[in-house]
Amino acid sequence: MGKSRSTRRERAAAETVVEDVDGGRAELIPDRDRPRAWSLLIDGAPQSHVDLDDPAHLSFEYQRRLGHVIDLAAPPGRPVRAVHLGGGALTLARYLAATRPRSTQQVVERDAALVQLVRRELPLDPGARIRVRSTDARAGLAKVPDGWADLVVADVFSGARTPAHLTSGEFLDDVRRALAPGGLYAANLADGPPLAHLRGQIATAADRFAELALVADPAVLRGKRFGNAVLVACDHPLPVAELTRRAASDPQPARVEHGRALADLTGGAAPVTDAAAVDSPAPPPSVFR
């Protein structure tokens, strides 16, 4: 058995794809447990996981939480029009295409070299209606027609940090412009103690949207460790009860904050403007060990 494991390790190492892209050193590492699954790392930081045989499988916890939002964006199976700001290995676009066939999607990913690598090594289903634009996320969002999107997902990181210009109220104004009535906005945020960035992002979204919910590990919400939180916003009532049920039953359970509890979490933080925006905080080195 030891020899078999060694052989698998050698085969995995031989099949790892390493390539320089605009954002750094990209690695595509095969998953030993899934024959056609891969993890994408940029400069050692995990970015995406894709199973070409099962695109509905979401391995990373924050992607599963975004998957819950996608599932609740419309009745099961109904096609939607979605904009993804940040592409990575196109995991969530593949998920949506698999779970909501005939959906139309636009992916905005600034790193053109990364897009080429992913298209070559992890090709998309030719039947999926996914268009990928290689440009800045905010510039790409500006080209989305007014009221076009049922769903906008923001998952943009540069050097493991969200760029400042994607954290402001002015940015959210353009998200609102692109959303159809009743459309959902979901953002993957990363922060650690004292949660200043997360509090500011909640306050900014609350200044622009009528309804908010936040999905995160309780330890992150308590400021005990650095981690991801998914912020969901809409101008109509959110499916909070179902989102809570799904988050609680996840392999890595999360808590959903909403209403007064979420407002209290802001701790008096002010909405972020373009003039005052800064990049999200860098994760501590221990996060990726």
UniProtKB/TrEMBL annotation:
- Metal-binding as a keyword of this entry, yes or no, is no
As recorded in UniProt, coiled-coil segments are none
**Biological process, per Gene Ontology:** polyamine biosynthetic process
Q: Has the keyword Ubl conjugation been applied to this entry?
A: no
Instruction: Output the InterPro entries linked to this UniProt entry.
Output: SAM-dependent_MTases_sf (IPR029063)
Keywords for the protein's UniProt record, in alphabetical order: Polyamine biosynthesis
The protein depicted here goes by the name: Spermine synthase
Q: Which organism is it from?
A: Streptomyces parvulus
